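does this look right to u?? magnesium ion version
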Amino acid sequence: MAQVQRMSRLMIKTLRDDPADAETLNHKLLVRAGYVRRTAAGLWSWLPLGKKVLENVSRVVREEMDAIGGQEVLLPALLPKEPYEASGRYDEYGDLLFRLRDRKGAEYLLGPTHEEIFTQVVKDMCSSYKDLPVILYQIQTKYRDEARPRAGVLRGREFQMKDSYSFDTTDEGLAESYQLHRAAYIRIFERLGLDHRIVSAVSGAMGGSASEEFLAPAPAGEDTFVDCPNCDYAANTEAVTYVATPAEAPAAGPVEELDTPDTPTIESLADFLGVPASATLKNLLVKVDGEIVAVGVPGDREVDLGKLGEHLAPAEVELVTAEDFVGRPDLVRGYVGPQGLEKVRYIADPRIAAGTSWITGANKEGVHARNVVCGRDFEVDQYLDVVVVEPGDPCPRCGTGLQVDRAIEIGHIFQLGRKYADIFSLDVLGQQGKPVRVTMGSYGIGVSRAVAALAEQTADDKGLCWPREVAPADVHVVAAGKALQTELALDVSEKLGAAGLRVIVDDRAGVSPGVKFTDSELIGVPKILVAGRRSAEGVLELKDRRTGEREELTVDEALARLTDQG
Ligand code: ATP
Ligand code: MG
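got this back:
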């Protein structure tokens, strides 16, 4: 028999108003509906209803991880620093790590993620190729001293993560473990009712499917991604590649110089000439491993330094400073044009195609040039897609204008390869009797973040609105107030419970029906069953929390209806 939770005994306090410190919907609603309380910045206390939702998410994750052969373990969250020193992450993580000492002065950290420790566990436990492949996972508390834990439960400094790690002897094995996780994640997010997209986590330039993120579109999300309204293309904004559509360039006259005093910025130039910024060519100077390089993009576009850096990696990309112009009369700050840059490598966005004509710097103070034609007046040394993607840019797959949306990263899957195995010399004895280096994958799901993401995605103006799989109950029975109504509500609750349904029954005395209805909507259980006006006849009203649809039913009909929905 499933639990019947009486509201009169439930530790809950609902609030009419948003907490003063709340900036995001999940924070407002989860606190107002009595699911969590904020203990300190980024630290959340899970109250009875919240804990139920968290457990439901964990259960779904656990079932699907078990289904792909994952074995659940639990490693410590308090960790010695040495393995993280060996991997270099003790320093790399910087301020994100919580560091502490024990009574003897030895240094520890609170685990932000566990690649190092899992590698050591497998090294300890597995010695032969026969012991692999293995998938290990845990659902555990993680610690990261996030700089701005403002997004409510979405970004905790202490949070619940499912982290798993795969260990294989071959690259094909790793690819298979990765695909197993990918499929399991799709099932998990489908079961949870989280709308999600899978995007490549690194740019196309880096080559790949070795790492993908699961994003849940929501305005509160801290990630941006592009989404094609026409086909199923979705990608990280840094990963979008521009596919140039060849266009007939209009014939341009000869290069003509224009006096344009005090126009060092694109904005001032466009204003002065009365042309759109898109007609101008912007040339950004950067240093690539110390060498000055010019990057050309249309004047209305921004250079994405991250994208540029990724294309040019491992070279280091920096912006130029005033000092870099010293002794370089060829570089006229604010008036650079590619037609005069003989000694400078010229990288350009694919939109600067051969035959296109531009207004750009004339390499003289206060002077610009027009009719500067690519391929005639200047050459591009290298084309790179380096602009910040914008709404309306063409989809690389179908050409439709892309949308740029915000999303929450709810999961991340990653083919690590042999990085950690190399650091910790993780080998097993191979079929030929020789040691074989192990290859690894690591895979995360933000379990507590998924609760917040669901709140963000499913809430409406009345409050939370949980999908059934994660809801703290299947049905919320409301006794309008009179003794007879309470009696009927308790009676039907017992029967629903006996039939295996999880029930919350609002049997509180001295609380007005209006408050009870408002609370039931705020709490967001999928079905609300009211013992109201027609209780004397044994008739209840069943309401769907999401659609608001109502129907009047007898106890037996209500039972049949609710148990029948699977
Ligand atoms: P973010 O970019 O949001 O900081 P991340 O890429 O650093 O996340 P991962 O190291 O990939 O995070 O961790 C795996 C998963 O754990 C993430 O996909 C996310 O769902 C969850 N997660 C990460 N940081 C937090 C946090 N501070 N609070 C709650 N969940 C988190
Ligand atoms: Mg990530």
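The pocket of adenosine-5'-triphosphate (ligand 1) is lined by residues 113, 144, 146, 155-156, 159, 161, 409-412, 444, 446, 448-449 (CB under 6 Å). idk if thats expected tbh
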